[in-house]
Amino acid sequence: MRLNSKIVNLTIAAFVAISLASSFYIFVLRDRSALNLELEAPEEILTGVPFDLRVNFSNNSGNLISDVRLSVVLPEGAAFFGKDPRKNIDNKPLGNIGDGSLVQETYKVIVFSAEPTGKEFKAAVNYAPASLGSRVRFEKSETIAIEPRSAGIKMEMAAPGETVSGDQFSLDIAYRNVSELDFSDLELRLEYPPNFTFASASLKPDSGNNVWLLGDLRKNSEGKFSVKGNLIGSEGESFEFKAELASRQGGYSYLVSQGSVKTAISSSPLSLAIHLNNGEDYIARPGDNLNYTISYINNTDSLLSNVAIRAKLIGELFDLSSVQTQATPAGGQGFFRPTDSTLIWNSANAPDLASLPPGKAGVVNFSVKIKEIYPIRRFSDKNFLLKVQAESESNGRIFSKVQSETKLIGKAEVDAKAYFRDAESGFLNQGLLPLKIGQPTNFTIHWLVKSFANDLSNIEVRGALGNNVKMVGAPKSNAGAPPFYSVGGNEVVWQIEKIQANQGLIGIPIEAVFQVEVLPEAGNVGNYIQILGPTGIKALDSFTGQELSNSDGALTTALPDDSTVGQQGGVVQP
């Protein structure tokens, strides 16, 4: 009876499994197009203008589908209108949908990216066939690509293609509602280039000098205003003005339109150029003497009178007490004003600047030293720049402004130390001290690396082992892989990928420790033994792109860093 019962149970289980499998494959292999999913949207949309995105889902499969869930995913730069612009997914339960049923869901959507690129919207339906239970689920998805025709508010910006450095010009902004929607709570924000000086605007800004609250804008309405100011820069230098127009709708602010316009600096009537140490891209070091030459030329067909040239020193590494101006036959000797670190040349100290004929050129010179020590107080004190800002003026009108930037190179430093008694390091050094002929003795070597002013990369530390010295034990480090022995050069090598600026000056140094064994021989009697030759370090300065190198002296059994060893403790005995 038991056997028959088992057979019956197995038969029933097999029948159920076959039935489920048959139902599964019947459902899967049926015409899946009987479940239809579509997305509908207007043929044309405008950015900043809400539109209806409709999802249609119909079940003609001949079966009930249960626990249906609808998901709509919006592309970047689109949002569900009236909701947080950061929300781009909506999930909605639809319950059970019978055979022959049609479900329609409509979403109010807005595209707020002003980029004229296509946007892909996606809908997905996740469901379970009633005949298979909730453990088996299927998904059907569709996408639709929509490309905005234009912005709901057309914005145009206009500026002169070229402007003379220091001359005032007008930046014009015009905007027009080209949609069928009345926009509300418009805000226009301008982004000026760094060298732009705002003078005035025909419409007073509501915040600072670059934000306007424009209020409402009905369909087919327009507005415009202008901003006046000047740019100061070098000939040929190009600057870009940018604008963003946003509208507050449904409690949230959405970008409607963007604009930009460029203008370039034309040939200045009185142009300047700065030269440092007779070279380009000069990289400075602490203690360097910097020799600056500022050249000028009258590019007009007219005489320029009462010319002044000013040069402002910016950077805490300038040693302002060392500033000197050199007299030149044409330019004269300038005056240094320490209150604002500015050198000044004018008709009072440089007679040729009193009257500058057309085409006339000249130079003025000065020199300044760099401080010997980096002013480092925190990790962020790095990537030091030395700047000189120079400007030319005639009769109170500024014509040009130029800037020179000089990078200061960093420094890598390695300190090599040797110890006999060094329990703190975790190494136990064995052997005799004083050293004995033929008796091996262990020492630990410490390499401590510091970085100054700039981040370092590709760091490599090397030191050659002395005669009858070999590396033993397992080396270790607190940065990356530990040192290793290089057979070819009988060297110990330590490679580090990166070190942040000022490591070791602030915080603990980067350190490696390894153990060596020294075997004295007869020729060493009465002398110290060299354990390790000079330790060298090379690294790449990440700020300047320059290679750095430095070194520390050789290590001997004199062990000056080990206070437990007397002056004669490292001398080899017979």
Verbal overview:
This protein has five domains: 1-30; 34-150, Immunoglobulins (Immunoglobulin-like, Sandwich); 152-265, Immunoglobulin-like (Sandwich); 270-407, Sandwich (Immunoglobulin-like), CATH 2.60.40.1530; 411-556, Sandwich (Immunoglobulin-like). 5% of the residues lie in helices and 52% in strands. By secondary structure, it is mainly β. The protein is flat.
Secondary structure elements and their pairing?
Blueprint lengths: L1 H28 L5 E6 L5 E2 L3 E9 L5 E9 L4 E3 L8 E9 L3 E11 L7 E11 L8 E9 L3 E2 L1 E6 L3 E2 L4 E10 L5 E9 L4 E6 L9 E7 L4 E10 L6 E12 L2 E14 L4 E7 L12 E10 L5 E2 L1 E8 L3 E9 L8 E3 L4 E4 L9 E2 L4 E10 L14 E10 L2 E11 L3 E9 L21 E12 L3 E9 L4 E9 L6 E3 L4 E9 L10 E9 L11 E3 L2 E7 L5 E6 L2 E2 L18
CATH-wise, what's the superfamily of the largest domain? Mu homology domain, subdomain B
- Number of contiguous helices: 1
State the separation between the terminal residues, measured CA to CA: 99 Å
Name the structural class.
mainly beta
CATH topology of the largest domain: Immunoglobulin-like
How would you summarize what this structure contains?
The protein contains one helix and 41 strands. The chain has 574 residues and is mainly beta.
List descriptors.
single chain; 574 residues; mainly beta; Immunoglobulin-like; 5 domains; five-stranded mixed beta sheet; five-stranded antiparallel beta sheet; 1 helix; 41 strands; 52% strand; flat
